[in-house]
């Protein structure tokens, strides 16, 4: 099911395997999203306090927050 969820309700999942980012790749991703929009949806699951954990797409979430 596809559902629109405000960015402010998304949080990083503790199961996220990435621990260190690549600043150059993150800048490229941010530029791509700014130019073309978000091309792939994030996958989330319900979490506590009406939040949603990002299971797939944490880099995209961070890029969106930075824009």
Describe what is shown at a glance.
The protein is an alpha+beta fold and 67 residues long. It has two helices and three strands, in the order βαββα.
Mean pLDDT: 95
Largest sheet, described in full? 3 strands, mixed
Structural shape:
globular
CATH level 3 topology = Conserved hypothetical protein from pyrococcus furiosus pfu- 392566-001, ParB domain
Task: Pick out the low-confidence regions.
Answer: none
Helix-strand sequence:
EHEEH
Any overview of this molecule?
The N and C termini lie far apart (26 Å). The protein has a single domain, classed as Conserved hypothetical protein from pyrococcus furiosus pfu- 392566-001, ParB domain (Alpha-Beta Complex), CATH 3.90.1530. By secondary structure, the protein is α+β, with helices and mostly antiparallel strands. A 3-stranded mixed sheet has the order 1-3-2, with no helix packed on it. The longest helix has 14 residues. The model has no long low-confidence stretch (mean pLDDT 95). Helix content is 34%, strand content 18%. 6% of the residues are buried. Helix 1 crosses helix 2.
């Amino acid at each position: 099911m596809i559902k629109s969820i405000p960015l402010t309700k998304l949080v990083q999942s503790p199961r996220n395997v990435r621990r260190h980012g690549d600043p150059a790749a993150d800048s490229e991703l941010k530029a791509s999203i700014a130019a073309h929009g978000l091309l792939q949806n994030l996958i989330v699951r319900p979490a506590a306090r009406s939040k949603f954990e990002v299971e797939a797409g944490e880099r995209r979430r961070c890029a969106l927050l930075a824009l």
